[in-house]
Queue: 2 jobs
Job 1
Amino acid sequence: MEESRGPVLRVEDIRKSYGDNNVLNGVSFDVKLGDTKVIIGPSGTGKSTLLRCINHLDIPDSGKIFLNGEEVHGSKKNISKYRRQIGFVFQDFNLFDHLTALGNVMLGPIRVLNMSKEEARELARTELDRVGLQDKADLYPAQLSGGQQQRVSIARTLAMNPLLILFDEPTSALDPELIGEVLEVMRNLALSGMTMVVVTHEMGFARSVANEIIFMENGKILEQGPPNKIFYQPELERTKRFMHKISELYGREDREPQVAENQDNERRDNELEDDV
Amino acid sequence: MEDIFELLVRAVPFLLQGTGVTMSLVIGSLLIGFFLGVPMAIGEVYGGKTIARIIGIYVWFFRGVPILVLLFLFYFGLFNLIGLNLPAFLSGMIVLGLRSTAYQSQVFRGSIQSLGRGQMMAAESLGLTRTGAIIHVILPQALRLSIPGWSNEYCILLKDTAITYAIGVMEIMTRGNFIATTSYRPMPIFLTCAVIFIILTYGGIHLLHVLERSVRIPGYDERTKEAIY
């Protein structure tokens, strides 16, 4: 392990607004090699924006991103040099519709890493194998189920041999019965030591795989810590309410003790229900 | 007066020569429109405000002025003004091409925008540059989606070539008019012209349809059909 090199990813005081809407109000955290960090929080809280700011798909207004100690900034060419080291898995897959599963995985290695076609094909088969889709290599995205598409997109990212992978609600666009196969791939990745930052509402995954959970609201990190702390002994009343609400909505979680509900709480919970 | 058979035996080969001229005009101006229209569409979507505005003005002008006015404006006006002594055929092709550029750029722009931002983001997240993403991800999809709109443009452009009659290009219409006025039999002659145009129109549409099917992405069509029916 290369612990002496410090965090793989350092996010320092990232701020981003769209017009009058302040989406991120100063977010900082570190991700060490092999970490799996799960970011949770109500919708519209800036989680996806934060991930996009990390590889500059959205340009932050201020703040710094460091990848292995090197600041991510500068010209567009320079940025793409960093981006190839940061995998990104999108909520709606964004597979390239005109290419087969294999073609999707081969594109990056050929066009970015300048691999030969044969090498890239070999690599792509290995990565598709890793997500359990070796027999779907020649099918086009439109011929695959949502879960299969998302697994191809994970293979596409893996083929670039990234330092870390960002997952932006990878199962939110899937039918419930397809979520499991994607989560399993992600679980195996985490176990194999891949560094991951995952935005998700899947609490089962968060509790069993994450080594840290980050709770965000209104563009800020409210609380962070190991799953056991966030799930069972959160410091903030707000975190407790959110955890309660989300386990109720998304299930797969032990019952949490009922929060005392005065009128004010009830009102805020209703608001939360709308935006989860 | 010669009978209709004799008239047609004389007229058809003469008109068919004009068909070659017409098709050269169509192909030439479609290609001008394609090679200028694609970069213009890319510029309009990805080029920033200033470039989009300049392209907007170009499209606004060429869509707003009748083709006959454009033809006279360039052939008798601009080309003379800048000392360019182009033959009528070439002038016609250029003017039709420049106008087709305006329309084609909008066909391509529509296709590019219909792909959504996700394709570009996914390509960039892999480390492709903007240009690389456009070449390897955006265009292969956008051009496929453009074929129906493009075949419409072919249809319109083909029939617009007849307007070059006004500057004396020896295409179908100019030749038809010549025989019609010298034989005093306008009806069979112009009907023949009409038939030639119909054959060219639907022949071309058919070819483009074959192209569309041959480059179609497996599974993609079914998905679209499901959405429609």
Note: The beta strands of chain A are 9-18, 21-31, 36-40, 62-67, 70-71, 86-89, 164-168, 195-199, 212-217, 220-225.
Job 2
Amino acid sequence: MTPTTIMLCGVGGQGTILAADLLAKAAAASGYEVKLSEIHGMAQRGGSVDTVVRFGEAVYSPMTDIGMVDHLVGFEVIETLRRIQFVRPGGRLLVNRRLIPPLPVLTGDTLCPQGVEEALAQEGAEFIDADALARESGSAKSANVVLIGALSLGLPFDKEVWHEVIAARVPQKTVDANIKAFGLGRQACTKGVGQP
Amino acid sequence: MTRVLLSGNEAVAQGAWEAGAEVGVGYPGTPSTQALEHFATLPDVYAEWAPNEKVALEVAIGVSLAGGRSFTTMKHVGLNVAADPLFTLAYTGVNGGLVIFVADDPGIHSSQNEQDSRNYAAFAHIPMLEPADPSEAHEMGAYAFGLSERFDTPVLIRSTVRLSHAKSMVATGRCRDVRERPPYKKDIGKWVMMPGMARARRVELDARIACLAEYAEDSPLNQVELRDFGLGVVCAGVSYLHAREALPDASTFKLGMAYPLPAKALKAFAEKAERLIVIEEADDFLARSLRSLGILIEAVEAPRAGELSPGLIRQALGIGAPTLRDAPSIALPPRPPLLCPGCPHRPVFAALRKTRAVVTGDIGCYTLGTLAPLSAMDACIDMGASVGMAHGIALAGGVGKQPVVAVIGDSTFAHSGITGLVNSVYNSGSAETIVILDNRITAMTGHQGNPVNGITLQERESCELGLEQLAKAVGVGRVRVVDSQDIPAVEAALKEEIAAPELSVIVFKAPCALLLREKRGPYAVDAEQCAGCNICVRLGCPAIGRDEGSGRAYIDESVCVGCGQCEQVCRFSAIVLPSAAPSSATSYTTGGAQ
Ligand SMILES: Cc1ncc(C[n+]2csc(CCOP(=O)(O)OP(=O)(O)O)c2C)c(N)n1
């Protein structure tokens, strides 16, 4: 079995690190070998960030390359389009319908790019309104968990495993809301590619 | 044994703990930081952040001298700071095991350069282990202590970003090795490095390295994996994982110890392989080492700068590239990192921009004051350099009529800014202004305590270093403390101290925005009052944007933390708390959400 490669990308501070941790733990709890690789430090201050999680029977490198990603989970549309070439043809593209303007756009030094969402749609993106669903779950900060819920439909891990992993990882007070966020994401997701 | 998901940093600390390391000491620095943070949470250990890496290593040497096992952590550039004790520690050797964990940053994700720490191992004659994944980091973290005591040497363990911040399953739960401490013996021939003794230890050091090289020949640290003999690959650390992925059929010589090398075993491997290559990133340390042993290796056209990946290795060897999508190309704006909303550094840079000063900078979150729209930093080299550079610019007669200002963070000042200040005052030939940005925390590396805030790693009682008293004690005549969130006060202080004919110190003090629990606001823009002057937008706050159509400002209420900096700079009273004005916030969100 060749490993499955998942990339989570977004803007520093959006919670990709926690989401990747949940994903890696669910893979490990399901009996796979797993490797995760992320970037800390300066980029986490609102910069462009990504985390890679790979699982399978045997996984060597924690890194990936263009054309090699099976699932790209985009927390933000510009950052997703920036990494579109990482997704192999036929790979899955799951995108939070949110645009966070980079500072040069906010200050008016650069125009906001047009047609980002359309370009992603053309590439077969499934869009999720993760922020709205997070608010609905009662935990506005759980958009990352909503996206993991949406991703989960295409992965070979049981729902119970996910619930256990979430319950063990998030603050006690927010367990119920996070499990709800996960469920809303899973529900909202229309198509999963199944096991690669 | 239990299997847990650990990062390389956590795993190495776990290993050190299992080996009975009792004292951990280091200075934070990406990507090394979580090693000591994790160590500090383990039972029956003492752990502390030192003000800098040199001090950290000197503390560790004391522990070793007394017979204890010590674990020291730092990032690659930290080893430059600790290099002075390091080189002589190689001569003295150890009493209790001493292990230094150093994390490199190939690809320069969060550093000022890309140096390869393996060069220090060869330069200082200290054995260096190179784990490839968290599981090996765990094993070697423990193994290194035995090696240190057996060969009477400090041991370096090298990591890189893709080990430090990679996670995989690690079997932990071994018992802790609580052994009897070797007794302290006064031995000036070993521990007092004055010329007569050092000459003898120099000879001893060569003999030790020869023993270690012999040990390397059949050490379990190095692993030869014979597969196809057509291609042989010599590699170490994370590069081994990339090579296995890219070249699954190749035979590999995986070095778990990058220095000293097993010459005989490498030559034997080289003879078996039809083609021999070295795979390594950001420097050619191994390739040079092998060539100096007389081993012929084929050159690989992989990029020299930056990180490797399996794909880059395949590309360098001309092995088929994956098929790519035929994706649309839309020019996307870059997304540089930025100061957080509410950051207390922002008003200082906005005010500095107005002074048109030459600003020598330093390392921390505040280095982001370099980028547009604040654009208020001219140079940044290494921790503490801002103070000396400002003095030097002043000595060179300044730069035109521009005033000279040094900007340095609280942790950075305690790290290595103090000696610079002593120099500038002692040689009182200049009138620059030294700005200390005291945000009450070491923010960039993820909120560590430091001497200025008096918060210690294991929450022991401490005291705060008084910056004002310190500056006065050093001899600075003009010292003032100003609230960085009070913009008129910030501007006035800078104006006055820049105009002063002597060296002055301003401590701008206000807590990091991420430390604040209670948030006010959010603020909003009253569209009727907004003149579109852009002054608030030029603060570079991620909550404030300029509407492309109307040219007026808007505030994203989901990002605003209510610091009120924009309200202070607005000359049209257009920035208000929402109860007082109709909301004109423009949504950042495309489509449905928000
Ligand atoms: C010699 C060295 N050690 C460690 C680091 C890592 N490092 C970069 S910034 C920083 C802390 C800066 O803290 P502070 O000066 O308080 O500024 P802040 O980030 O809080 O604004 C550290 C430890 C480094 N770059 N160089």
Note: The CA atoms of residues 154 and 192 of chain A lie 4 Å apart.
